[in-house]
Structures are given as structure tokens and as C-alpha cells.
TrEMBL record:
Keywords for the protein's UniProt record, in alphabetical order: ATP-binding, Chaperone, Nucleotide-binding
Lineage, broadest ranks: Eukaryota, Metamonada, Preaxostyla, Paratrimastigidae, Paratrimastix
Protein name, per record: T-complex protein 1 subunit alpha
Record-stated family: Belongs to the TCP-1 chaperonin family.
């Protein structure tokens, strides 16, 4: 018997939750009623809380084979945890979803959800039906989304040339790279700008395929020696010094196998009387096969071969004769990436359907130039001017694998944030500014309703404050006082005849422990991060609230 699970709100009050039909009901011996562990989503959120914001701390996770991951990114942390509780699992998936759809805000979304659930529980315990809470939350979400769009967003162009840098800075401020935040923010902005491509279906509009930004990691040197280089860069050298340093234009064969001498099959018997003959047989059957393959490939005009396997020293001569570059042990994913950028095709072998070896020139990728150049004392292969997409590479340097991996994740978050900003052209102010403004506005909206959703909308408004509270706690500040000041500022700005409308950009300054104008301070985020985080968090909270009981089936005794 498998495991069938419904999740419990602990509020078994009638028909709100999923009921099992009698037909689907397993025999009573198999049902073990599980305790509704409400705290489990909260426990997951508590793990992440301390890593939110610029003063957030990192987590070190050691898996069962001893591999260590050090990260500040919510999705990465939750991916590594072995979460058992079904409701808590929803939170892990949520963070993953935010990571896929937006790329940033993965910690915030989990913290929001847990707080929404916590406040919903209080209402349910006060005998408010879960359905009323659900309706209230949905209403609050719709209203909040509209409020953000109408009152709290700006187009990027209105904010001046530093906006993009500020966006990158806000995302990177909580990560390992924050020591050199200006350097890395610049790097990310340049990288995103360099892959800008015009949209085919909408003239005048651009898209930013950040997949075309190839992130490479190389041990050694310090973090701020990371560089952005045009084209695709491979941190490896040519297979032999005799090969040319540059070929222009390049026709690239992408082989997912090695160019090594063929070993004769086991069990083949060759009778010879002279040791010299043995060598000749070997040469004929083992080396000639690879030579023939190379000849076939070079005949199509190919002048660069990248392969995932090795290249035998015996095969180097044909390369030099054909004036071609050969690179061995290219990573498989990189090879696929190059194939996409150059319009080539990765070949698993050269056999056609009849089993004969052929090589079709259509499989060749094309680029303006392939060259070997020195970057910071290391030889790298560059593929520039790729046929189908503009590409660039970020070559990251750092002391060890943990740092490099975390740098890659952090830069990826920043690149995603920049892409979202440039594509949607909308930003909001960070540091709890949106949460503070929404809290006051929603409280006011709740009092205009005389229905039972009023309490739920108020609870939704209260839940939003978890972000500024957590930001302040993590920065070792007085959260209660700061949040009170934040709310006071927003309440003032939302009065009908306010003299200080600029107070609506009030957010936390986590260094001085003040409430300041975060728009002027340049703490900016893409509006999409906030909008999606709120939407996903409400959806997940509602999904969990709809469930009123939770069963676990014990496996049938054998
Ligand atoms: P997430 O994974 O959810 O993006 P982060 O750890 O990156 O979490 O933290 C993001 C939060 O930190 C956002 O709410 C953002 O507004 C806030 N934040 C980032 N930089 C600053 C800053 N300089 N001052 C105040 N708040 C900041």
C-alpha cells in the first residue's frame, strides 16, 4: 500500500477540508491518524528566517555523504533538507517555484507563507471557519496586488541610470559577495546588458536570455579577480601547442565522445610470427579508425573539435595538419550550451542508422572566431561571435568550491532580478517599504468591509510585517520599535491630506537602525519578485488551509 496523505489544519470543523470517500477509505487497521503538526511549516520558516536580508547569516548543510553546502539562498537550503512533514514539503516546493519563476525572493516567500498560516490558525482557533479565512486571504491578495501596481511601482526609466546597479546591489547585499558588492553589481549589469537581444515578435522590445551568460568557476585567486569576458569561455587549453591559436571563421564539431585509439574487442585472435607485424596490425585496427574519423570530419571544413572525452597524442598530428584546434574534456553541459549558441549539434557517435560512420556538415556549429587567450595567468578557449545567440561568460575566481558555488548562486539571483526588471520595467522599494505600506492600506481596507472576511484581511495585513520584523531582528535591532516607526511613517503618508507623500517610500536602514526613504537610498527590487512572492505564499497557505485532517497509511504487514 502506498502512502496517502491529506494535510491537517487541526481544525476539524465540518466540511471545509478534503474528505475521503468511503470507496477510497482504506481498512481501519491501516489508518494511523497523524497528529496535526501545525508548527512544521513554521519550523521550516524559522530555519530560513535568520538568513533573510543583508544581515542574514548563512547555513551550512552537510549531506549524508559528507558534502558541504554553504548558502544563504532559501531555495538552495530547502532543497538540501530532508523535510518529511507534508505541509512543510509544500513550503519547500514553493521556494523552488519562486526560484524557477522569478529567481529571487525564495526566502521571503516561505516566511510569508508560514506567517499567513500562523495568523490563520489563531482565527480558526477563535472559531472562524477556514473558508472565511481563505476568502479573506484571497480578497486581500487581489487588493494588495492592485495596490502595488497602482501606488508602489515605478518604471525603471524614471529612476535614472543607477537603478539597475541598485537592483543588483539589493539582491547581492545578503550574499557572500557583499564584500565587493559594487564590483559584482557592475559585473552583473554588464553581463545582462551584453546578452540583450531584440524580440522577434515585438519590434523595439528586448529580451535578456540569461542562459546565454555562461558562469565558469576556477579555483584560486581572490573573488574580485572574477571577470566578464565576451563570448563563451572554457577554462582549458588546446590539446597541443602545435595547433593554431586562432581560427577565423570557426566551424565547430561537438563530440560527446573521445578521440582515442579504438581498443580491439576482447576475444579477437590474431596470429603473427613477427613482433613488428603485431605493431602493424594494431596500427591498422586501432589507430586507423580514429584517423579516418578525423579525416572525415575535417573534410567538411571543420576547424575546431570540442570533445567530452580525451584526444590521444596519436591523433594530434591530423589536427596540426588540418590547422584545427582540438579541446579535450569539455564539460557535457557546456558542450550543449555551445551547441545552442552556435547552432551546432552534439553528436553521441558518428554512426548512421545503417551503422556506417558518416559526418554531416550540418552538425557543425558556427562562430566568428575561436581562440586561446590568457586570462589572469590561465589559458582559456574563447568562442566569440556565436551564430545564433549573443553570449558572454562570467569567469568566477574564489578560494574553494563552497565559495564558488555560493557565488554562482548569488550572481544567478542578481541576474534573474535584473532580467525581470528590464523585461517588466517595474521596480518597488525594498527594506520592508512595500510591506509597511500594504499593512496600513490593507488594515484600512479591512475596516471598510462589514463582512466576516474583515478579520482575515487584517490577519493578512499583520502577516506582511514579518519581513521588516525579521530584517530588523537579523540586524540585531529593536524590531518592535522599528516596525512601529515604519507603520507610523506609512500611516502618515496615506492620510488623505498628507503633507509628506514621500514617506510612502519609508523602509528600514539596517545599518543605522532608522526608518529612512529607501527610494533615495537606492534599495530597489523588481516588482515581480514582490508580486509573485505574495501570490505564491497566499496560494500555498490557502492550499494548506483547505485541508482539515491528515492521515498516514502504515504499510500493510507482509
Ligand atoms: P530572498 O531570498 O527572499 O531574496 P534575501 O536574503 O535576498 O532574501 O533578502 C531580501 C530582503 O532584504 C528583501 O526584503 C529586501 O528588501 C531586503 N534588503 C536587501 N537589501 C537591503 C538593504 N540594503 N536595506 C534594507 N533591506 C534590504
Amino acid at each position: 500500500a502506498g502512502m496517502q496523505i491529506t494535510m491537517g489544519t487541526g481544525a476539524s470543523q465540518g466540511p471545509s477540508g478534503v474528505m475521503m470517500t468511503p470507496a477510497a477509505m482504506p481498512p481501519p487497521s491501516q489508518i494511523q491518524k497523524a497528529k496535526a503538526e501545525w508548527l512544521c511549516p513554521t519550523a521550516v520558516a524559522n530555519i530560513l528566517k535568520s538568513s533573510l536580508g543583508p544581515s542574514g547569516l548563512d547555513k551550512m548543510i552537510v549531506d549524508n555523504v559528507g558534502d558541504v553546502t554553504i548558502s544563504n539562498d532559501g531555495a538552495t537550503i530547502l532543497r538540501q533538507l530532508d523535510v518529511q512533514h507534508p505541509a512543510a514539503k509544500v513550503l519547500c516546493e514553493l521556494s523552488e517555484l519562486q526560484d524557477k519563476e522569478v529567481g529571487d525572493g525564495t526566502t521571503s516567500v516561505v516566511i510569508y507563507t508560514a506567517e499567513l498560516l500562523k495568523n490563520a490558525l489563531e482565527l480558526v482557533q477563535a472559531h472562524i471557519h477556514p473558508n472565511s479565512v481563505i476568502l479573506g486571504y484571497k480578497k486581500a491578495l487581489r487588493w494588495a496586488q492592485r495596490y502595488i501596481t497602482e501606488h508602489l511601482t515605478f518604471p525603471v526609466a524614471q529612476l535614472g541610470p543607477d537603478t539597475l546597479l541598485n537592483i543588483a546591489r539589493t539582491t547581492l547585499s545578503s550574499k557572500t559577495v557583499s564584500a565587493d558588492i559594487n564590483y559584482f553589481s557592475n559585473l552583473c549589469v554588464e553581463a545582462v546588458r551584453s546578452v540583450q537581444t531584440a524580440k522577434a515578435d515585438a519590434p523595439g522590445q528586448f529580451e535578456y536570455p540569461i542562459k546565454a551568460i555562461n558562469i565558469l568557476k576556477a579555483h584560486g585567486r581572490s573573488m574580485n579577480e572574477s571577470v566578464l569576458v565576451p563570448g563563451i569561455c572554457l577554462p582549458m587549453a588546446r590539446a597541443a601547442q602545435g595547433m593554431p591559436r586562432v581560427v577565423r571563421p570557426a566551424k565547430i564539431a561537438l563530440l560527446d565522445f573521445g578521440l582515442q585509439r579504438m581498443r580491439m574487442r576482447m576475444g579477437i585472435q590474431v596470429e603473427v610470427t613477427d613482433p613488428m607485424q603485431l605493431e602493424a596490425v594494431r596500427e591498422q585496427s586501432e589507430v586507423a579508425v580514429v584517423r579516418k574519423r578525423l579525416e572525415m570530419i575535417f573534410q567538411t571544413g571543420c576547424n575546431v573539435i570540442l570533445c567530452t572525452g580525451g584526444i590521444d597524442d596519436l591523433c594530434l598530428k591530423p589536427f596540426v595538419e588540418a590547422n584545427a584546434i582540438g579541446v579535450r574534456r569539455v564539460n557535457k553541459d557546456t558542450l550543449r550550451h555551445i551547441a545552442k549558441a552556435t547552432g551546432g549539434q552534439v553528436l553521441l557517435n558518428l554512426s548512421n542508422l545503417e551503422g556506417e560512420e558518416t559526418f554531416d556538415a550540418a552538425c557543425l556549429g558556427e562562430a566568428e572566431e575561436v581562440s586561446e587567450e590568457r586570462v589572469a595567468d590561465d589559458d582559456c578557449i574563447f568562442i566569440k561571435g556565436c551564430k545564433t545567440t549573443r553570449a558572454c561568460s562570467l569567469l568566477l575566481r574564489g578560494p574553494n568550491d563552497y565559495m564558488l558555488d555560493e557565488m554562482e548562486r548569488s550572481l544567478h539571483d542578481a541576474l534573474c532580478a535584473l532580467k525581470r526588471t528590464l523585461e517588466s520595467d517595474e521596480v518597488v522599494v525594498g527594506g520592508g517599504a512595500v510591506d509597511g505600506a500594504l499593512n496600513i492600506a490593507l488594515e484600512k481596507y479591512a475596516t471598510t468591509l462589514s463582512s466576516r472576511e474583515q478579520l482575515a484581511i487584517s490577519a493578512f495585513a499583520r502577516s506582511l510585517l514579518v519581513i521588516p520584523k525579521t530584517l530588523a531582528v537579523n540586524a540585531a535591532l529593536d524590531a518592535t520599535e522599528l516596525v512601529a516607526r515604519l507603520r507610523a511613517a506609512h500611516a502618515l503618508s496615506q492620510q488623505p491630506d498628507t503633507k509628506t507623500p514621500e514617506l510612502k517610500w519609508s523602509g528600514l536602514n539596517l545599518v543605522t537602525g532608522d526608518v529612512i526613504n529607501n527610494l533615495a537610498a537606492g534599495v530597489l527590487e523588481p516588482a515581480m519578485t514582490k508580486q509573485k512572492a505574495l501570490q505564491f505564499a497566499t496560494d500555498a497557505a490557502v492550499a494548506i488551509l483547505r485541508v482539515d485532517d491528515h492521515f498516514k497509511l502504515e504499510p500493510e504487514p507482509q
